[in-house]
Here is the input.
Amino acid sequence: MVRRSWLPLAAAFSCFLVACGAPLKSTPPAIGPTPPAPAPVVQQAVQPPPPDATELLIADSQKHFEAGERELKLGHLERARLEFDRAIEMLLESPRGARSDARLREHFDRLVDRISAFELIALAEGDGFTEKPSEPASIDDLLVMSTFVQEAAPVELKQAVQSDLQSTAHDIPIPQNARVLAYIDLFQGRLKEFLQEGLERGSRYLPMIQNVFRAEGLPLDLAYVPLIESAFKPNALSRAKAKGVWQFMRGTALEHGLKADWYVDERSDPEKATLAAASYLKTLNKIFKGDWHLTLASYNGGPGRVERAIKRARRTDFWALARKAGFLPRETREYVPMILAAIVIARNPAQYGLAFSTLPPMAYDRVKVPSAIDLRRIAEWIQLPIDELQTLNPELRRWTTPVRAPEGWELKVPKGSGQVVEVKLSDAPAQSMGSLQWHTVKKGESLATIAGKLKVSRADLAEANYISVRTRVTPGQKLVIPRAPAVLLAAQVDRPVPVAESRDVASGEQLLAQAPDATQSGRVKVQYRVKRGDTLSSIARLYRTTVESLKSWNKLHTTRITPGDVLTIFSTRSAVSSY
Here is the structure.
């Protein structure tokens, strides 16, 4: 059944009422003069309220704080400190004072807390004593992956490699056996991106490496060995503790003229390590009578191990030694074909589908600097991020040059900035150069008692001072303390802390109690002095932790705290730097 809507009918009926109802009376036209039009209404312009002086002051203070943040991220501690100080001073110089207004008081308290926390992080992580982090060496992962390499390479690949080897002259023999082909297949397939990134990074160092090898009469193909060893990363560190572009073990590095101590590890200097690698490869090749496959095997496994394998197998051919598991370790058996495959692709990357950008070689000036100068000071002078200065000097393990360099330390700075640094060095007072802290040995003290008193490693204390752990120290002797400056507040050392002494501000204070606690991974130990209005809950929110954690760390049975109490907090670095 279809229902008809009543709406059209209702509409029609309403129209009928309008049209058929009583006639509307028309208004007769007005007779007489037309009245004057009303005067237009003049709208008054709305005046904006006068600027809020407090908000303007807070905004200006915040700008200086944010500028300080940026400088700190670049490693410019002096500039950061100036900006932070200015952010606070603006509030203190206000006619009404920094705490007269609720908004000013809140901003001031928050600012002081954040600045103190930033200084804490700068000292805990960038004090010139914390060693720079290393990167995993590619050789470890490649050798693990070698377990899964398939023996049979595609027929098309075999033909492509054969054609390539016929048209490309190599200065070490490249056999077309199953293992070499299998690695070529892996590198142009699953590991294509890895090889591309390594070749791009290596393009910065290859001209230098090839020049050294050419001068030493070595095959230029060997310049690609670091592609497998480290992917050309100067701070690469293997599980076996081999380090640098050429992955030298410490003993081998020292044997070939590289320095390695508490301040410096020249295994990470690409140029110096390349000179050492050239010397080592020539020595190995002489041992194995010019056989480059055995030379590469001994570079990985050591010459003694390869010589023993040759003696046991009564064979001098690497591929014969590699056929059986009993003569050479698996990683050495895989290492040689892996290197050869990388050389094939690196010499002709486009043929194997690889594309990457070529980076320009590093350009720099060399400047002789006095011993123990803080790299952050140099970075400030030439307006350079500290990371870039470290990239130019990867052999420096910390943010300071060595404390003992009789003829000065040769520092690399960006091309064109050497003269600026030399002028600054001649003008700056010697005592402002470094961030080192010293301890004067007192009667009855030994290396062990000093290390215990200052809560530093006895081995670090000895190595930082170029002495043995068994060395007897004498009264009056000065020792470098391998510790962040703020840590020394409690140690009563001979020189004042240069960056963040105790900030005794009305709003509260944070001090660095000790280096990051090993048992609290990824956290920094902070001492926080309770200020008026603080609660455990507000402090927990500030440091992104919980009330229960605060109670546990401080052995509190209640939530009651009073101004002046000092609380221990294990805060994450991200929390300290971002609240």
Remarks:
- Strands lie at 135-136, 236-237, 364-369, 409-414, 438-440, 478-480, 509-512, 523-529, 566-572.
